[in-house]
Design brief:
This protein is mainly α. It is about 50% helix and about 0% strand. Helix 4 runs antiparallel to helix 14 and helix 5 packs parallel to helix 11.
Amino acid sequence: MAKLTLETFKNFFKYYNEEEHQIRAIEELYSGLEGNVCAVYLDDQSDWVLKYRNKVKQPAESIPEKQWPITKNQMASIMGCKSSSLSDELMDDFARCVDLYDMDLKSIAYFLGQCAHESAGLKYDVEIHDGSNYEWRRDLGNIYPGDGVKFAGTGWIQVTGRYNHQAFSDYLQKKGEYDSKIIEVGKSHTSKKYPWSISGHWWHNNKMNEYCQSNPPVDRVGQRVNGRYLPNGYQARRHYSRASFDVLGLQYPGD
């Protein structure tokens, strides 16, 4: 009689599906083995029975953490919010923003400080006022009925007007991304999909990256964003900017 090998023995179970002919075959095997198999091996709690009957859950493969310019914890620390409130989609758009406008760490620090104030720590991605006061503001490019409301302040830095929305849309298109909803829908679309990217476009369009390389005081950066000196909410702008520079390991440039 040929010696029973482990592979031969394992092959017996390989195609077992509890079909009728397999059950009859096992019954015949049992009758041949009866009296020659120690009862302990057939005990419900024996090691091999437990292993055979209970599928062991394999540890899930670790999913590599997404790589963003800064972490959720860093963003939350700057904004004064919980990291759990920051969705992956939001962080993805931040990464897109940094990449689109070639922001270095210093520009990011200034940018986050201003965005934090304008959005009250990422609480408001659209202007609180409905925008009806912007109707027919040709300096904002609002030349059609409803443009004021449709293109009211959007994104974390409150980008306003048809002109700015069109410029953002055109910029994305040059980069190979076309999104008709930027103009067709306006703020209710851009505020959700591009809260960082549309804010970053204003930053880029106004050459803020270049300006920030000279380490200007935070109040002067706020003046460029807000349009007056001292800028509206200058104390909050200072607070958020200081947090941003501290978290990113940069020296605060002063007020």
